[in-house]
Amino acid sequence: MFKGKQAQKGFEAFTLIEMLVVLFVISVLVLLFVPNLASQRVKIEDQGKVAFEKVIKTQVELFEMNETMEITYDNLVKEHYLTKSQADKAIAWHITLNDDNGE
Fold first, then answer.
1. For labelling, which of 1, 47, 63, 96 has a CA lying 20 to 30 Å from the CA of 30?
2. What CA–CA distance (Å, rounded) separates 56 from 33?
3. Is the pTM of the predicted complex or chain greater than 0.85?
4. Can you tell me where the transmembrane regions are (predicted)?
């Protein structure tokens, strides 16, 4: 039985300075990676919008070839060329159904 303080043989711990150095290194790494992740997210969103616009344009072309009705989002949904959620997203992103460039 020990009286008073217990013997601390073989017990090692990190010092406060070592812990601060580790936290500093982690903070620097976070500061380096967070802006890069944010820019990648914006780039991916932009690419997703471009791909979605191509899907809408392709579905409009199919609709033009197969149907005689006016090209509207309601008609595209009604004839199952687009889902309601796709039409809503296209309207929110201001994707036009008619080519302004004549392409």
1. 47
2. 35
3. no
4. 13-34
